[in-house]
Amino acid sequence: MTGGALEGLKVLDVSRFVAGPFCAMMLGDLGAEVVKVEKPGTGEDIRRVPPRLGGDSLFVMAFNRNKRSLTLDLRHPRGQEVLRALATRADILVENFRPGVMEAMGCGWDVLSALNERLIMARISGYGQDGPYADRPTFDAIAQAASGMMEMTGAADGPPTMAGTTVIDHTTGLHATVGVLAALEARRRTGRGQMVDAALFDSALSMMMTAIPAQAMLGQGTPRSGNRDRYGAPSNAFPTADGGYVQIMAGGDPRFARFAKATGLDALLDDPRFADSDLRLANVEALEAVVTEWTRAHGGEEIEALLAEAQVPCSKVRTVAELFDHPQVRHRGRILDVVHPVAGKVPMQSAVARLSDTVADLDHAVPTVGQHNVEVLGDWLGYDADQVAALAAEGVL
Amino acid sequence: MTGGALEGLKVLDVSRFVAGPFCAMMLGDLGAEVVKVEKPGTGEDIRRVPPRLGGDSLFVMAFNRNKRSLTLDLRHPRGQEVLRALATRADILVENFRPGVMEAMGCGWDVLSALNERLIMARISGYGQDGPYADRPTFDAIAQAASGMMEMTGAADGPPTMAGTTVIDHTTGLHATVGVLAALEARRRTGRGQMVDAALFDSALSMMMTAIPAQAMLGQGTPRSGNRDRYGAPSNAFPTADGGYVQIMAGGDPRFARFAKATGLDALLDDPRFADSDLRLANVEALEAVVTEWTRAHGGEEIEALLAEAQVPCSKVRTVAELFDHPQVRHRGRILDVVHPVAGKVPMQSAVARLSDTVADLDHAVPTVGQHNVEVLGDWLGYDADQVAALAAEGVL
How far apart are CA B200 and CA B140, in angstroms? Predict the structure, then answer.
């Protein structure tokens, strides 16, 4: 853990599932010391969710590298007391209980900030800490539905469609991390920490691009359009000779010209129906029919290489199996092994932001439940073995 | 701009389109002073992209609030000289040209960091600054296709599907912001800035959840499953009596019990086909048929209210038009007016991370092209009116 940008910072992660653990993991990837607090015995609920390996969930492995695990029964008064003690030692606390739960455990913002005025507390929730919807339990897909994002995804003639991965959990974790790091910068001036409120619903709303003003000011909807770009053509997924698809984006005038020349479809450039961007959008079906005829006659790899050469944005629609030998993935070390005590080495996507001088340390293991009870309570609170054993005997750990 | 967490920091934003401008806008929302650098005359290319209002693009309004605009011809040697001078005054520079373009303009990382060792440079690109794919032009949809994310989105029996908003542009801008803020923290210790490398492809890969280890370690694919959750049932979008859909997530045992009781479908709890989570997944079609029969008999609002009461995660699949009077949107000020000099007040989604003490200042206008040439060159470089006029006469501004 030497040389990380956030070296020396202590993070207490009492969060569950994806958004909170992802936030704390990013802080750990950047060099902070992260302690994951979870339920005695079974640990965090997501540890039981498939797919599983080595008796543990791949979800835990994906979002909890670079952390140590401490068990603590937060419904037990002694567990709450230990959490408050740990919070006096922490720079950052990350939680994603429903609003009010931390308060009910005697660990609300008022209590914790009074104990440690430098503490920064990231609170991740479905709809935010206040307001008429604050109490509603919410997951990623619910936020996609509630925000209008689901309504905008999918085929024009099909139903509203969910993004196939937990994009809102990820963006909410990212927004919380941005808030935490900004609060750290403010703390340098003020000496005081802050509460950071980041919500799944708000995070989904923030990705609506121009849909909100287009509706309000122009009365224009932003309907589903499948893989077709709304503002440029040709830009869509096209079928290939090998039974797959390529996504091609050749909408702008210079890109369209490069595309037509690279593919031998030069006749497109003389066709008055496709003479400028507005006309190409107006005649998009006819244009896509010509492109499809061409893509159906070529393989995905061949098309991708040809259009890369012509500097036209294009990619095969790749499967996960195609990622492992991908030359760019290999060159940039995008898939690295994290180590789980039972499952062993597990390949996982690596940290996104690369800093030129400080390292993103990915060697740290994914912890098993309570693996670091003795170590963390010793390091952070100075408890000796007898004190830890007494807490365990009480069922607090 | 008083009281923002990043008050006092200067950001030079030479980026275009979505990911870069979004990164710089978040820094501005958090209180930094941001100067947007764009082409003389027409300004950034996205200013011509529909939907348009007041002669400008809603895309510019969505991603450039809280910035001042300075025009600069970066292909002109004098323009490059002015950019280098500005970089000596900046804390952070954000760019998303293709790798090598900043170098070709005499403004690569080596040059700029030699001029200003405290500078932090965020470089956003399709595939990262190095490697065999670094040169490929890449947009959001291309990264969705390349990463496996598109392959995982859409109906099980339909084609690979694109998320309907630019989720990867957003996450990449977020990762770049996290990197910048972490580099700021490291700078406090070292006195030196760093280069932050954030790529669309890497950002898309990072959202693949457990798909990569599931494929590598278990030989399990993570196929498209529409709106159906892969690991819990019932969890899907269900049709309602009013012709819309509700997304309901009632997979876990306690949630399933609450759902069955709230809907009057108590018989589900006695049905051996649905007795635990594994059985419900195995018999998901039969289970969803029962749920669908019930949802078809009720309106979306009614279902949402009933299940909120029962603490079962649920939302109507809302349209954009339904957001404006949404009680939570109103309560939390999620839609606020930004001000454009010509278009006037334009409603836009507000900043996501809310900090309890420092404000996210959203009152600042979206700039027109070159609106702040005199002001910025005066403030940052001490140029007088004659010097600015001379640059303009040369065509540099």
Answer: 7
Chain B residue at shortest CA distance from A322: B148
Question: A332 to chain B, minimum CA–CA distance in Å?
Answer: 7
CA distance A93 to chain B (A): 14
Is residue B165 within 8 Å of residue B222, measured between CB atoms? no
CA–CA gap between residue A296 and residue A248 (Å, rounded)? 13
CA distance linking residue B306 with residue B274, whole number of Å: 22
Give A28's contacts in chain B (Cβ within 8 Å).
none
Of the candidates A41, A204, A9, the one whose C-alpha atom is nearest the C-alpha of residue A122 is: A9
Catalytic residue among B13, B29, B73, B169: B169
- ipTM of this complex: 0.98
One-letter identity of residue B264: G
> Are B237 and A343 within 8 A, CB to CB?
no
Per-residue pLDDT of chain A (397 residues; tens, 9 = 90+): 348 999 999 999 999 999 999 999 999 999 999 999 999 999 999 999 999 999 999 999 999 999 999 999 999 999 999 999 999 999 999 999 999 999 999 999 999 999 999 999 999 999 999 999 999 999 999 999 999 999 999 999 999 999 999 999 999 999 999 999 999 999 999 999 999 999 999 999 999 999 999 999 999 999 999 999 999 999 999 999 999 999 999 998 999 999 999 999 999 999 999 999 999 999 999 999 999 999 999 999 999 999 999 999 999 999 999 999 999 999 999 999 999 999 999 999 999 999 999 887 666 789 999 999 999 999 999 999 999 999 999 999 9
User: Is the distance from CB of B346 to CB of B338 less than 8 angstroms?
Assistant: yes
- Interface test with chain A among B30, B162, B194, B361, by most A beta carbons within 10 Å: B162
Global pTM value: 0.98
A188 touches chain B (CB under 8 A): yes
Taking Cα atoms as reference points, which of B59, B65, B70, B68 lies closest to residue B30?
A: B65
The domains of chain B, with CATH numbers, are: 10-206+330-393 (3.40.50.10540), 235-317 (3.30.1540.10)
Owner of token pair 């701009």: B1
Q: Is the CB of residue B47 less than 8 Å from the CB of residue B56? A: yes
Q: Which of B101, B109, B178, B238 is best to mutate for the A interface (most A CBs within 10 A)?
A: B178
Alpha-carbon gap: B18 to the closest alpha carbon of chain A (Å): 9
Is B59 near chain A, with CB under 8 Å?
Answer: yes
